[in-house]
Structures are given as structure tokens and as C-alpha cells.
Amino acid sequence: MLSRLVKSHEEHLPAVLEEIGTNPEQLKKDVASLREWYSYQTHLPQDTKDCVLASFLVGCKNSMEIAKRKLDMFYSERRHYPDIYGSCDPASHELTKSYKTIYTITIPTLTPDGSTVSMLKLKNPDPDQYAPLDPIKRLNMMYDLMLDQTIISSKNYLIYDYIDSTPAHVAKVNPLIVKTHLDTLSFLPVRVKGLIIINCPKFAVTTYNIMRNFMSEKLSSRVHVYAEGASVLSKHIPQEILPKDYGGTGDYTLESLNDYWHDTLIEHRDWFLNESLHNSDESKRPADSKYKVEDDRFGVDGSFKKLAID
């Protein structure tokens, strides 16, 4: 499935590049320029692949300066979110429990416009087993792995299926967790096309009203909340690429994709456990660094504390 997703990204890349006003040859030159700058950023992981640099250029609509700053943020901000980026062991008790409790998947086929689609849905309806930060962690690990494999498309849909949710589940999703989810999404080189909630009960609407408080007006307009189920997804995403249990025509179900991603993360366990590949070393930050983590973190600059959207 990962190889299929990589292939899908590669097939859509020329159109994605054309959309942002560049081409494969120019992207290669821009990656070389970004690499030269990156080599002087001694606080950042120096084993970072060209596909990662290229993904940030694409995600930042080929703006070199924005890509530099967002790359720095991607590696530097992680230490402020230990619940998401700390101890990323896919075989840990917490993440194994999350795999058994919540379907957390990325579909292996992009939409026709080159958007990635990820989904979250309760697997075990017992609210005592529900830990809302763990699927966010698993989702970010998937994004990290995809970044390491290929130049990813910059557009993204997230689907949250709230079927079987109860007030006890919703009570665990406090404003800090919502903010953490949105913050960690903002570090990625992706532009959010839609946050889609289906099977949403009335008691959960308050949660999404809270979520809107952390969003720009434009992003808020891309949150779609439906009481209906899978049938409404076709308003946003071609039905054929969805899992079979959501009316798709592919060879995968939500269950099989959840199993696949769990196994794939474990296969890359050593890579995830090598923290030097994923985090900055602030003791090595150059004195003349233009990016000041603490300032941007509290919104002095304000460039990246909002999710990127088209």
C-alpha cells in the first residue's frame, strides 16, 4: 500500500507542480539551492532526504523563504509537543492499544486533484479505551514516513467518522487536544482542503465549535459537519477511492488499511526510534538563525500558527 501511495504521488506530481507555477527541472534546481542553505543549519537533521526538501517547496507553493522557515519549524517545534512527537515507538503499548481502538489510516490513492485522504474512526466503542492524542500521534507518524519516501502532494483531506461516539468520548476531546492536533498539522508541508466530520451527533457539535476558535475564517469554512454517514463523502471525494466499507471500488477496507499502517509503522520502528532524524538540536542552532522558535511559537511572527489552505 505504501508503494502504491508513493506511485500515486509520483503520478500526480507534474500537475501539482504546474499548479504552483514550476516544473520537475526547476524543482530539482530549487531543491539544490535549499540543500545548500540547509547544510549550514547545523541544528537540523543532516540526513534529511531531497524528497523532504522538495515536499516543503511544493507545500509552500515554491516559496524558498517560506520553505526554509517551515522546515525549521517542522524539526524544532516537536520538543514542545512530547505527547505527539516523544517516544514514537510504533510497538509501544499506547500505540498498539490505539491501533486496536481507533482506525487511523491514509488511503493509498490520491484524489484526481492530487489530494491525500486520511480517516479516523472508532474501532472499539468503549470510551474507557479511548485516548484521543494517540491517533493524532499515529497520523503524524504516517505523514513523517510518507515524507521520507517521496515528494508528497501538498493537498490533504481529513475525515472523522463519529459513528458509535458517546458523550464520554467527546468529553475527552478538550480544547488543548484540538489545538495540539491543528498545531501539529500546521508543521507539515500540506494545505488543508477539508476537515470532514460524518455521523456527527448533536452532542459533538460543541467540540467542533471549539475547534473553529483556533482556525482562520477561511479554514473554518472548510470544516464540514454532517449528521449523515458515508453517502455525503461524495460531495468532497470521489467515492471510488474510498475504502470498500464506504462505497469504494478498491481492494481495501478500513480494517485492512488500519492493519497495513500498523504493520508498516512497526516495520520502520528503528527509523522512528532514531530521534536524531526527526528533531532539531537547539544547542547547535547558528547564532544568526533568522528563525526564532520561541517567538514564532507564541505568534510574534504569525506566519505558520495557522494551517495552510489553498
From TrEMBL:
One of its GO terms (molecular function) is phosphatidylinositol bisphosphate binding. SUPFAM superfamilies: CRAL/TRIO domain, CRAL/TRIO N-terminal domain. GO terms for cellular component: membrane. It comes from the Eukaryota. InterPro entries: CRAL-TRIO_dom, CRAL-TRIO_dom_sf, CRAL/TRIO_N_dom_sf. Residues 95-254 form the CRAL-TRIO domain. SMART domains: SEC14. It holds the Pfam family CRAL_TRIO. This is Alpha-tocopherol transfer protein-like. It comes from Diaphorina citri.
